[in-house]
């Protein structure tokens, strides 16, 4: 049986399902497409069976794949529908925080950095590694993303 950082596939799904679910919902904003991205993430884990150094590496890989799946889904939806997509639906699970809801209203490029920083609690250098971006780029995206969140929450206008 294939092991992923010492865990069986079933253990990985049980352990990281909530993280991947939240990442997909925050990035997509609707349950149907989020569910597809969630499923595709774990299908890729199963079919590609990459090697992981440890569970942190495994979690980072899952989040990176989930975010990429969400990007692909958003791109495909833009091609399919020329009109503006509807506002994100409310989360179906009651444990989503206010920040998760607000993140769905921020542009995608800032959403992914804000999500990894505030929800998953990664540090800037870890986010840079996960997203394959420069550390200073991540800092800039965090700053600009925070400005957009302030506007959503009715913070100080500049």
Structure write-up:
The protein is mostly helical and 158 residues long. It has seven helices and no strands. The longest helix has 26 residues, at 55-80. 30% of the residues are buried.
Features:
Rna Polymerase Sigma Factor, Chain: A, 68% helix, Arc Repressor Mutant, subunit A, mainly alpha, 0% strand, 158 residues
Q: How many discrete domains?
A: 2
List low-confidence stretches. Answer: 81-96
CATH architecture of the largest domain: Orthogonal Bundle
Q: Indicate the radius of gyration in whole angstroms.
A: 16 Å
Structural class: mainly alpha
The SSE order reads HHHHHHH
State the fourth-level CATH superfamily of the largest domain: RNA polymerase sigma factor, region 2, helix turn helix motif
Number of discrete helical segments:
7
Query: In CATH's first tier, which class of the largest domain applies?
Result: Mainly Alpha
Mean pLDDT: 84
Beginning-to-end CA distance, first to last residue: 56 Å
Strand content is under 5%
**What is the makeup of the main sheet?**
none
Molecular shape: globular
Which fold name corresponds to the CATH topology of the largest domain?
Rna Polymerase Sigma Factor, Chain: A
Helix content: 55-70%
Number of separate strands: 0
Entry summary:
The protein is mainly alpha-helical. The protein has helices spanning 9-28, 31-48, 55-80, 98-103, 108-119, 124-131, 135-152. α1 crosses α3 (55-80).
């Amino acid at each position: 049986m294939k092991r992923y950082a010492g865990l069986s596939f079933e253990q990985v799904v049980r352990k990281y399902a909530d993280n991947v679910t939240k990442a997909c919902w925050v990035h997509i904003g609707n349950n149907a497409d989020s569910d597809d991205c969630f499923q595709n993430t774990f299908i890729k884990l199963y079919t590609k069976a990459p090697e992981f150094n440890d569970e942190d590496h495994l979690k980072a890989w899952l989040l990176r794949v989930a975010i990429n799946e969400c990007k692909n889904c958003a791109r495909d939806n833009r091609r399919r529908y020329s009109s503006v997509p509807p506002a994100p639906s409310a989360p179906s699970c009651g444990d989503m925080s206010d920040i998760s809801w607000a993140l769905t209203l921020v542009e995608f490029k800032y959403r992914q950095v804000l999500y990894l920083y505030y929800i998953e609690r990664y540090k800037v250098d870890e986010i840079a590694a996960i997203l394959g971006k420069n550390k200073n780029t991540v800092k800039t995206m965090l700053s600009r993303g925070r400005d957009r969140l302030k506007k959503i929450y009715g913070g100080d206008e500049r």
